[in-house]
């Protein structure tokens, strides 16, 4: 408050320059008064008084410029001196009444305390002058009355004025502070608006960039799907040769003349086993491209570990024998089976064993296994060069090997361990390594024996109504059976069943081929849904109107193409996907009732023609075989011969199998000749599987159920990436 008062006093002080300006005016006024009181010869003192006032005013102005506080007091003193000079020098009557002027000036120039001091000083001066006889008693009465009356009036006015001024000053200061804050906030707001506009502009640019990236991602996805389809076709064609000829040699060795050496037959068995494993991996690649998941699907089942390890050992044994290394398995016979994917675990063991065989020069490899609580641990220990501690961090990274010399010497891409790590983690397990430089390396694999159990019931179950009926005092005697969702699948083929068993391994799939069997399966045991695979989804809903379905069972109709559906769509007898075994080919011919006759093989691959011809000749049925390398050559043969069946490759140069089928449909003579399509393209490997999805339920859908269905479908189908997330969650 004191600081505010000082600031207030300094702000509202009257400048002494106004007092100094009035001094010359006062001198002129006294000179004009003298002209009225005296004659011209006695005006000299009045003139000198006026000049003195001018001089005192000029000196006061200069003194104020030099020192402001001294200049203020100078103005007050000079105003009092002028009053007393007017009385004693000029003798102007009644001029002493102006002694009230200096205190009044002091109030404005310095303050009220200074005015009081000056009033007391002037009173004392008048009394002293009266004591020396310089003033009459009657002469000091009026000045004293005027002085103190004026001072009393100033006092009466000063206190309220001071409070009002103080109030006004405080509000002025507050208003000025608020104004400054408002200006600061206005500046901050302007800056925020500018930043917001810049951010909005940046966001717009990012949205445009995101749209471009989304289009690029969509194009990349389509390119990836096309690439996977093309690569699978290119892989299946030579793989068909490997599997087909190895089966031919193993099953009919007499077709090759003299008896073959047992060692050769054993090696061929290894070749066929690994080729079949590679065919399963190609199927998985196609499934992944269709589902668009970033995780590998797991076909979980109860898997005996001993069989998997023995199969992997047999596959890599030639490598160890060629390097004169030992390969031992020390697995106890009573190891429990694990719940996992047979193909994936076998691939992990193949990677570990093949890596150990490639890097080991002396000694060999030993495989061990033991049960550790709820997990099973497998170890692969070699006597190789070992791994340095600083290289452990790069061991499971893709495309990473310890140094360039190892890659040049032993080959490989550095993907085996990273893929194995991914497979083990998908099973909920762990893989790690222990190694000592110059001694050897041991890889450990930990896999859960049983599927993960659901989490125990929370404590809140005891806080719900009827809790006393839910509690148990002892564990039930019956063993706990894991609850699996039950799905009834109605389809003529097996394409939808294959997808469900592959990606929804926890579900119980009941496959039927007729609606009556589906109704019987639904009534036999509670089911979660009835799935109908049919190309005409709209007609399915019409047919369901006349079917009495159980209450509350949802029915989903979709169109998932399979080989049977593809065969019907093309108007052919059968559709087989490479690689094709001899047994499968002969079975397809038996279903057509062809025990003998003429078979036309149309394929652009000479090896495929040779393989199919060899399969037919070794069947003992006496088939006559015609061969064509493309569609045009096949048409020329069909003009002269009418075969009993056509084995047709769909993808060929010049004239492919689809064009040949179109020509066949336009020729009445050839329209009745059955065709078996042989292709490397799996219908389930296409990017788009089902063109439609329909949902119905007896009794209809309530508003909450309908809204939840719409929300779920929009989230899965309408949002980018959601389908992949769902697929990932389904297959993990």
If you had to describe this structure to a student in words, what would you say it looks like?
The protein has 732 residues and is an alpha/beta fold. It has 5 domains: 2-135, no CATH class; 295-448, Heat Shock Protein 90 (2-Layer Sandwich), CATH 3.30.565.10; 484-578 and 680-700, Rossmann fold, CATH 3.40.50; 584-677, Rossmann fold, CATH 3.40.50; 703-732, no CATH class. It contains 23 helices and 17 strands. The protein has a 5-stranded mixed sheet with strand order 2-4-5-7-6. Strands 9-8-10-11-17 form a 5-stranded mixed sheet, with helices on both faces. Strands 12-16-15-13-14 form a 5-stranded parallel sheet. It is elongated. The chain starts with a helix and ends with a helix.
List the uncertain runs. Answer: 1-12, 290-295, 403-413, 719-732
Report Rg: 55 Å
CATH homologous superfamily assignment of the largest domain = Histidine kinase-like ATPase, C-terminal domain
Please tell me the total number of domains: 5
- Largest sheet, strands/sense/barrel: 5 strands, mixed
Which CATH first-tier class of the largest domain would you pick? Alpha Beta
Structural classification = alpha/beta
Query: Strands of the largest sheet, in order across it?
Result: 2-4-5-7-6
Looking at the structure, the CATH topology of the largest domain is Heat Shock Protein 90
The residue-averaged pLDDT reads 75
> Beta-strand level of the residues, as a percent range?
5-15%
